[in-house]
Structures are given as C-alpha cells and as structure tokens.
Design goal:
Number of helices: 19
Largest sheet: 8 strands, parallel
Shape: globular
Oligomer: single chain
Strand content: 15-25%
Number of strands: 37
Helix content: 25-40%
Distance between the termini: 55 Å
Structural class: alpha/beta
Length: 950
Amino acid sequence: MSKISFDNRLMFTYESKSFPGVNKVAALVRQDIYLVTGFHAGEYTRGCKCRNLIIYGTVDKSDYLKELEEKGLIDLEDVRGKWEVYSFTVLDNPMDGVDHALVIAGSDKRGTIYGLFHLSELLGVSPLVNWNHVIPKKKKNVFLTDSVNKVTKEPSVRYRGFFINDEWPAFGNWATEHFGGVNAKCYERVFELLLRLKGNYLWPAMWRSNFSMDGPGLESARLADEYGVVMSTSHHEPCMRSGEEYSLLRGENSLYGDAWDFIRNREGITRFWRDGLLRNQAFENVITLGMRGERDSKILSEDATLKDNIDLIRDVLKTQNGLIREIVNEDLTKVPRQIVLFSEVEEYFYGNEKVKGLMGDPELDGVTLMLSDNNVGYTRTLPSKEIADHPGGFGMYYHMDMHGGPYSFKWIGATYLPRVWEQMTQAYDFGVRQIWVTNVGDIGTQELGLSYFLDLAYDIDKWGGTDAAITQEYMNEWAERQFGGMLPLSGRNKAKKILWDYTSLLEKRRHEIMNADVYHPLHFGEAQKILSISDEILKEAGALKKRIEDEDLSAFISLLYYPACGTANLMKMWILAGRNELYARQNRIEANDIADEIDICVKEDANLIDEYEKVDNGFYKGFGKSEHVGFVNWNEEDNRYPLRYLVYGANSPRMLVSRKDDEHYMTGLEWCDRPQTWRDMLRPDVDSIEFDLISGSDKPFSYRILSDCCWLNFSKTEGKVSKRERITLSVNKALLDEKVTGTFEIENPGIGCVHVTVEAAPAEAPKGLFIESDGYICMEAEHFMDSEDAGNSAFKVLSPYGRSGSAIKVFPSTKDFLEEKRRPWVEYRFFASEDAEYEVIFELAPTTPVTFTGGQFMGYSMNGGKTKIINTVKRPEIQFFFSEQWQEEAKANVKKVTDTVKCVKGENNLRFYGMSPGIVLERILLVRKGIELPKSYLGPRESYVCYEEE
C-alpha cells in the first residue's frame, strides 16, 4: 500500500510553464494543508531528497507528468483530451530521492485545479474556507493511501456557474467596504469560491458594475482567464458588453450614438458590439446573443407586433454572428454562444400559429438555447422532441434570487434543496446539459443552495436520481463539512435539523411575502406549528452559539445562525402579528402581551443583521442590507412592518371559551351567547380536545367545570384565569360501545355560564380507508393504497418535498402519457359519510408546462369510472408565464385543481394517473358539498386511516 504523509517533510513541485492560475491554486492548497496540519509545505527542487511530494500539473504542459508517464508510473490516457478531468494517484518512489508522492494530473487548466482542491477536501477543508472562514479541524498524523486513487469523469454539465445579480444594496456595499468596489480584488475572492465549488462559469454583477471596465480596465477579465473561469454576460447583455456600459459611453458625439435602438442606431450599436468582442476576444468566453431594451426591458414598444420583434431579433443575430466570424473565429461552431429565452424572448423563439419564430433559424445553429425557470425555481419550457437535437444544446437560467415578478426575494437564501433536485434533474433528463447558471443575488447566505446546485451539475449521477432523500444526505454531508471542526456530533445533528427546518419553512412561504394573513392564527393549528418550529430554531441555534469558539463564529453565524434565526424570527413576528390582530378583535387581554412580543421580534431582526455584519471584524458587512419585511408590491417599495393592536379590557371580569384551533368563542353571558357542539371525538383517532379559558378583561375571573357525564374527564376543573388557561378534555374510548352525547358547563360565578355539548364515538373504522370527518377527507399523496406501473414508468414517492413534506411523481420524468392508452396510476380508498357530491381538490407542486403550448394535464377516475383529463392551465390561450395563475401559484407554492365528483356512502376509490410530464401531486382533499372548511393556508391535517396491522 502506497502512502503519503502530510508532515514537516512535505513539499510541492512548482513549474513555471504551468498555467499561472494553477500555481495560484496550488498556493491556496498549501495554505489549506497548513490549516489542517500546522506545517508549511516546502517547494521542491528537482534532484533534492524529499520524503513526501505533491506533484501537480496539466497533461502535455508538465515535465514531471511527462517523465512519470514515460516511466510507466502513471497512465494519462484516460485524462488526455478530456474536459475538466483529473487523475489522483498516491505512489511510492516516483523519482530518485523521492520516497512518496501524490500525483495530480489534470486534462486541462480546470481539471488540474479541481484535482488540487480535491486534495483540500480529502483533508477536511471546506470549499467555504476563505469565503466564510470555515476553519478546518486540526489533525495529527495526516496521511493518504492509494485507496484514494482515481480518475474522474467529465462533469455532467459542461458550464456550471452563477450570476451575481440584484447586487445593490448588499453585494455592492460589501464589495465597496472590503475591496473598494466590484473590481478584480473582489472577483478574485469570487473566482476562488466558484472553483472550489466545482463551477467554471460566471455572469458578473451588472446593476451598476462593468466587469471589463472596473478591474480597473480588463484586470477582472484577465484574472478570470488566468484562473480558468469562463466569463459570459446575462440574458440582456450581448457581445461581452455589460448592461450599464452603453449608458456610460453613449452621447450625441459618441461613436456608439445616443440610442439603444438597433433600428435607428444600427451603426452605433454594431460598433459597440464589435468593440466588446475585440476587447474580450483573447479570453475564454460564452458570448451572449440577442438584444433586449435598456435596463432589461422589452426591445420594442407595446404596439409592436410579434413579427416585428422576431424580425428584429433575427436581424440582430445575423449581425452578431457576422461580427463573431470576423473577430473571434470564422468557424462559428468553435465559438461558445448562448441566447437566453427569458421573459418575452421565449415567445420570439416559438412564435405562434401565424408567425414563425426563431426556432430552426440557421443563425441559432451551434448556439446554446438557454431556457429559464418561472423566476421562483420551477422550470418553464424544456426541449421538445422536435428540437431535442439542436446543435449547441440547451442551458438553464435558474433563480435563487429575484428582483422582478411575481415577487422579489433577495435577503436570506431561501433555496429548498428538494425543489432544486426535482426540477434540475428533470431538466437534465430532458437534455439540458450544456450550461447551468443560477442567479444567487449577493452570494451571501446562498452558500447551501449554491453548493448543491453546482455539485449536482458536476456529478448528477451522485446527487440526482429518483430519490428525493438524496437531498437530506447532501445537507448532512454539507453540515459535517462546515461544522465538523467546531461542534461535537450531538451539536452537528442539531445543526442539520436547524438547516432543514428553516429551509422547509421557506418552502411554504418566503420572507418577503410573509404577512399576518398568510397562516390563520388558529385553524388546524397551522400557525402554532410554524411558531413552534421557529421557536425551536431560535432556542437550539442560540444554545449552539454559546458552544462556539471565537475563531468559528464567522462560519457559524454566516452559514447557520443568521440565516436560520433571521428566518425563524421573521416567521414568528408575522405569526404573532396575525394572532395579535385576531385576539384584539375578540378583546382578549393577551393581545397586549403579543403586541410586546412583536416589538421584540422587530428589534431582533435588526440585531441579527447587525451581528452578522459585525462578526469577524465586519467580514460580511453589507450582505444584510436587503429589505425583506412586508412586501405589498412585487418589490420593496412601500413595504410595511406589522401593525400592533392594543386592547382595553372590559370593566368587569369577562370569560371567553374557545377550542384551541377555533376562532369562534363563547362568553356564557345571558342574551347573546351561542352554545357549541364539539364533534372532534367522532374522529376515530381523536380522544381529547384542548380548549382555552380566556380573559377579556384585566380583572381575573374564577371558573368551575361541572358535568354529570362520567365519561368526560378534565385536566383541571376549577381555578382563576388572568389571561389564558388551557384545559384538556379527554375520553377513554375503550369504554364506549356506541356514539354518545354529553354536556358540561363552565361556570363563571356571578357572571355567566358556558354550555357545551360533546359527541364521541368508539375508535372503530373500516380497515384501509381514509375516514371522513367534519365533512372532508384529506389524503397525502404518498399514502396511496395501490398502484400500477406502465412499462418502465411508475409513480415514486418524493420525500422530503413540497409544502407538506412529501409528494409523488412519475419517472422517467420525460414520459408523456396524454395520448397513451396505458398509464401508471395510484389508488386512494376512502369512506364517505353520505351519498353526495364532493368537491375534489388536487394540490400539486406549482410546476409549469414543459412545452410552450398552454397545456399541462392531469387525470383521475372515481369508482372505476371513465378517466377524466383536466388541463391544469386555467387560461391556455395566453402565455402561462405572464398569467395571474403563475403569480398566485408562485407565491403560495401550490397549484390547486378543483373538480366535482359523486361519492357513495361507504367505500370509494380514486385513481390518479400519470399524464403530462412535470406533474407532482402533494395532497388530495375532498369536501362534501355544503361544507365550508375553516380558512387556512396549508389546509386540514390528513384524515385518519386504520391499517390492517393496527
């Protein structure tokens, strides 16, 4: 067994003929080794004696690799000529005087860099070591054996990167504070992060920045090329020109004219593009084609026709390709180019039944067609069969940050890994494999989602697949890498749960569009569930923070404490705001205490941001500055903090009685009170009811609970209430033989008496059926009772996933069953209380049609009847991307499809069929006609089902 030790006898080779960027990365790795071992690696001189040697280089650009290959000690045939591949080989006696060596051989510049950074990771160094100051755990007797030897495969996606966007006020202020601006010094830090995360591709900041001017000059572009970072520009910045450059260079006497208008200023705009290509031609680029209006707006006025727009873009493409042939390479197939089909440009590509679009246009041969998501993480159109073989392939522009419709989200990273997994693996299956780029806004607090996105793009076989649980495995591994050096196992496990809990909260509702009216304060306990999770995050994260050493606070606060507690505190603030308003309307004296708690949350929001920006001597200063509270428009304009309601108590003691999940209450007063009947315990799995005794005055009241019903039990039967007291009413259902009805009273001596009727039934139910209660049946999609495959296609459970934590989807994800006779299905069985019509609501993930036509279909059947096929797109005659449905679903993160079915009293079955690609079912809800469910955001909890083993 060959072995190399990382001790005070370790050396690195150095070859001046190596790529300068590779040698710079080697210096970073040497520093990584020092952080782990405490030893500085020396520099090897050929011919000297060396105990342990790191040999690195690029195939056909290294004398060391050439020598070892000629000796037969390494085989480079599996590396040579490949894209971003490296071999990693521990061996003994590679050269005279050298006892042990690790040989890292890259197929190209980036292959070598990835091999070097792989060494750092094997030693326990996080890719975020310098970005978030994740200090690795110190180790003794560090070594590697030949068990780590390997040759990597080419990355799954050719170009993998991110877009620094919406960078003011956060990223821009951070860059100005630390580097004097968004310049080459700033980008060197960004390039290192990108490469450590196995990315290779970047769209630079562009709101007020000019990548090829602010370096100063071309220094940022030159540095990117040195490191092997492939530069491009965003969807509206053609020919290597940033979006703001034209506004700086335009003018009445400018060579480029004074109008960003290809029709009126053709010569000036063409010259502007030409000079951009000339300026950046020496670097490795992917050149953006096409044209939009200034500041990412439409290119023509609203009265322009679709044909007008398409003809203009076709003319633009022809001009740009001509410039590229002239300046960069006559053979366009050797020039990486892209056009981003974002916003209205997508329509220009497809056209309509009357106007031919750009699809199939020869000017797009060899151009990567960059598709996009719906601005919130669900992909839009994917390659259809007719364009699947498009030369140039396909890319995806994905959003983890957004400044635009349907709403902006730019504060703390809100990426839920299962959504990225499901959407991007599906995109890959459809052939989107040339470019993946994600908008990460300011980068800060996006580290988790960005890491997964780039790792998935680098090795989709490892991190993709058909099991959503891979995202939990990834998060656990990621947490170990970041927190392994600062927390014991118990602490790391708590950190993993905190990460999962806060990102799951954001899958239900993002920060900026959270408000007091989202979750109902009481119904179905949904607000309390969010509040409990938030409180637990704040408690556990706070406890962990006390255990963190000062040198680790930077990483802990930036990667866990600030994003998790910032999220939890904001959610708590809004839950309390909703509760405060309801309680105040009901004159609950407790509303005043909740108003004080809201004030504490508002102040804590500012404190958390301040702590984040001050930790590590202000290392993250600037990153917390994005507005994030109470958006009432698509952006932060006119945003509002929660209102606080205060109440004056009644002049005399006042008692209110309410079940904990019900906003309706009783007072026990003589004339206007309405007694209630509680039927909760008719449900087989419910044997207790919690209710509150509430004070509507600052004067306490006394109470007594009286009942002659022997099967009713109370946790407490008398006492005094100053604000609120919770009582548990329970029944031993084992003593019940049939449905029973009982009553009890809550007496407020001298004031009033509340009368309550209680109905209960034995814990009996038909086996294997969901049981109707309170007029509804709710079934989580994962809990189907039967299923059938269709060939190699079948439904699979996605867990974790979505708002409720699980879902089902057909795999392979590309299969369309709309015109098929045989389709995969799952079956649900339930017990209906009556022969009646029911409204059936299918809750789906808010995915969008994979084709440009307005159709995404689902199908179901009832009780063996005919399959009913429903288009989930409500208005197929208009573009889905701009529809009201798109906006509503994007905000609530759910698509609801409603129909009416007839159920028979007793057993019923419902089959759900695989139909269009992209359909993901989360829940099914049936509500008997005439029943109005209590208002809620997440809906009722799942109905009871008795399984055979019970």
